[in-house]
Structure formats: structure tokens, C-alpha cells
Amino acid sequence: MITVKTMKRWFTSITAVAFILAVIFNWSLLVSSKKPSDVERAFVSDKAQHLADTGDEKLQATTKLAEEKNSVVGVTNLHEALEKIQELEKRLRDIEFRIPKKYPEVEFLTYKDRKRILVTGGAGFVGSHLVDRLMMEGHEVIVVDNFFTGRRRNVEHWVGHENFELIHHDIVNPLYIEVDQIYHLASPASPPHYMYNPVKTIKTNTVGTINVFGLAKRVGARVLIASTSEVYGDPEVHPQTESYWGHVNPIGPRACYDESKRISETLAYSYGKQENVQVRVARIFNTYGPRMHINDGRVVSNFILQALTGQDITIYGSGKQTRSFQYVSDLVDGLIKLQNSNYSLPVNLGNPDEHTIEEFASIIHEMVGGKSMIINKDAMEDDPQRRKPDITRATNMLGWQPLVPLQKGIKKTVTFFRRELMRSRHSERNLHNPVDSRNANSIHNGEDYNDL
Ligand SMILES: O=c1ccn([C@@H]2O[C@H](COP(=O)(O)OP(=O)(O)O[C@H]3OC[C@@H](O)[C@H](O)[C@H]3O)[C@@H](O)[C@H]2O)c(=O)[nH]1
Fold first, then answer.
1. Superfamily for 116-442?
2. What is the ipTM metric for this complex?
3. Is 102 strand, coil or helix?
4. Which GO terms of the cellular component aspect does the record hold (predicted)?
5. Lower CB count within 10 Å: N or C terminus of the chain?
6. Nearest protein Cα to ligand 1, atom 20
């Protein structure tokens, strides 16, 4: 028996197929025997991949066809083709809107085991990976983000899912919701981003953190705060253990972040003592991976972008300073383990695999290839000279240790940035120039972040 619902589905599928045929037809009008450039080919294949990711079965089959066709034909007038694509994309969005969205298969948790979890900064680099894991585990996840460095695109794949909610909200303003657990990640983390508006960074990590603890106190939620290795400043103890009090310049350019994160920790333990809020404190060391903002400005994204675009790889200072880099999935494991543990003192989460920045530049250069030169520029003021986590506590208390080797993590990150570059080259905002981290005004993400 053919129901109205079945007819509606047929209609949607037929419209989708007709639309894709129109795409192919339009493309065929724009092509000649000339071969497309790598950028053009990648762009078209990116679009087709997007369709394949989001469409229904018929749509996927047809887009594969479009991808094959587009990968062998050439483009005579790229500008005209791009205009056409924009117009077609708009129509595609209308079609996609009508096709039920497919989500990754999430675990089913009973009411007893399913938690309502707030992730502040959940649309950011680390936050969005954490959200993926919590969603896959079957929890209800609420993301709060002001989109200064976070992007809707990072969590778009969950929008509309019954377990997911995205709230555009700046945590410097109070929030009234019901939750069981909170991961408080909201704060710019890259030096040029946190130095861009130091007062706002301080507000986020002080007033914002007070708002989070106020919420936790009202509803009885447990809070994990994302602290940082920067609380150790330019450390005089190596590797850094959690018992080390740090060496921070309170009036230097990094102080807005270092000191406000130190206050965040103080707030956590004060709310714990005075108001019985359950607290967890993760001191996060240098972390990298896909979904870092193309304008992030930290060393991993800068070096990869520089190598991919054939620009000079810029080492600030001598390059003898060290860092230890952890891949984002390892961090997410650690955060979840810590949140669900019985341990309430600060815990270092980082990979002890230490490299000088000079070595790191060579690793990236070798892995990406290309013609970039490695050059030295003036050092950053107050740049910590050595950094490596002692992770004995995380290993003993949480049974955690990082698993992803540097080469593997970097490979995945390079793949991500290749795609980001394609996207950026074809968007109105051409964002592919690496940020000069020593100049906070060189970030240009266009968001209004000036409210004080
Ligand atoms: O293009 C660049 C960028 C950075 N660097 C250097 O690379 C090193 C690492 O710099 P990053 O900007 O990646 O990160 P930092 O270690 O200074 O700060 C980070 O610390 C840990 C986290 O909490 C934060 O993500 C961030 O504050 C520094 O010595 C910096 O001077 C370069 O040599 N060239």
C-alpha cells in the first residue's frame, strides 16, 4: 500500500536525483578538454564528498557519479563555474533540508546511565571532539559557545539530533539550565587569540568560571575545568609535576591567560570547599589535531600551513625552546576519565614526548614536503623555554596515558589542513596566511569580540 509518507519520500528522492542531474548538466556546459588544476579538482571533489556524506542513498550514488565526472573534466571559466556552484549549493541546501538528516549511530543508554552534560566552548577545537565522544556514548549534550574561536561547523553534524543542543551564549553571562556534569572549556587558548583582547580573556576565565560554578552549585553538577600547562609559566622545574607552583610573570603579555587560569583553579577549589561543588581540574599541555582553526596561530597549525603553502616556516627565537605535543583524541580520553574519576586534585594531561621547536619544524617540513625554508624570527616575550608534563598522577589515578604517536597525529592534521586550505581559497575570506603569533592583531576571524 502506498502511503502519503512513501510518496513524499519518493518525491524527495526524485527531486534530489533531478537536481544532481542538473548539476552534472550545468557542469558539462562549463567544461572543455582542458584538465582542471589540483585546487579545482579538490574543490569539486570536496563538494561531492559533502553531498555523499549528507545525502540519502540515491543522492550518494548520484553524487559519486558527479564526482567521477568532475574529476576527469576541465573547467574553462572558473569564476563562472564558482558562481554557478554557489547558486546550485543554495538549491541543494533546500533539498538537504527536506531529506531526513543522518547521524552517526550513538549508543543507547538507559535513563539511569544517561547524563545531561554541558560543554562550554563545545564548538571549539578540543570541545567539539569531546562532544563527539560524549554523544557517541549516548549522553545528552548541551554545547554553549560564543563562537569567538569555536565554529558551528565543528558540531554541525549533531545539530537536530534529539540528544544534542547548541546554545549561542557567552559564559560571562549567567546560564540557567539543568545538567549533571559540566566540562568548562570556554576560553581562547592560542596565545594570539587570548592576547587579542586580554580583558575579555580574563573575564571569561574569572566571571565565566564563576557563572559555571554558580550553575553547578544550583543544580548539583560536577565540574571539570580546562586549566593549562601555562599555570607553570616559564617553569624552573622540569618535567612539570602538579605539585610545582609555577613561575608566572603577573604583568607580562601571557598573564591574562596564565593568571586567569590560575584564578579558575582557585575558584574551583573555593567552590569545592565552601559550596561542596565536586570539581576536577585538568592541566592541559600543548594539544593539536583536526579542527584547529586555520587562524589558530599555535605552532602546529602555523608550521603545517606554512609548509603546505610553501611559505617560510617561522621559528620564534632560537628554536631551542621545547614543547611536548599531544593528539586531541588522547586528551579527550583523559578528560572523560578524569571527570568520571574520584580524584579531585589537578591532573596534567599531555604527551611527555618532548621536542625542541627547531626539531619540530624539521619534522613538519619533512612530512609535508615542499619548498619552504626554515627561518628564525624574533622570540616571543616571556616564551616558556622548556615544557614537558610529568604524567605519573594521570597514569596512577586514571590509568591514562597518551597513545597516538606524533607522526600519526601530524599526518591526520596535515590532511585536515589540506582540506581547510581548499575551502579557504574558495571562500570570500581568504584565511590561509598563518598568523604571526607575536602580533595578536594578525588574527582576523572577523568576530566581534570587543565587548568589555
Ligand atoms: O609560528 C610559530 C608559532 C609558535 N612558535 C613557538 O612554538 C612554541 C609553542 O607555541 P604555541 O603558540 O604553539 O603554544 P604555547 O606553548 O606557547 O602556548 C600553549 O600552551 C599550552 C596551551 O594551554 C595553550 O594551547 C597555549 O597557550 C613557542 O615557543 C612559540 O614561540 C614558533 O616558533 N613559530
1. NAD(P)-binding Rossmann-like Domain (3.40.50.720)
2. 0.99
3. coil
4. Golgi cisterna membrane
5. N
6. 286
Ligand 1 centre distance from Cα of residue 312 (Å): 17
Rounded Cα gap, residues 272 and 230, in angstroms: 22
Residue 134 three-state SS: helix
List, by residue range, all CATH 3.40.50.720 domains of the chain.
Answer: 116-442
For 177-217, write each residue's pLDDT tens digit: 999 999 999 999 999 999 999 999 999 999 999 999 999 99
Cα(73)–Cα(35) distance, integer angstroms: 6
| Rounded to 5°, angle at Cα 294 from 288 and 299 | 45
Mutate to test the pocket of ligand 1, among 308, 322, 323 (most ligand atoms within 8 A of CB): 323
Give the model confidence (pLDDT) of 272-282 as tens digits. 999 999 999 99
Model confidence pLDDT, tens digit, residues 388-421: 999 999 999 999 999 999 999 999 999 999 999 9
Active-site position among 183, 194, 232, 257: 257
- Model pTM score: 0.82
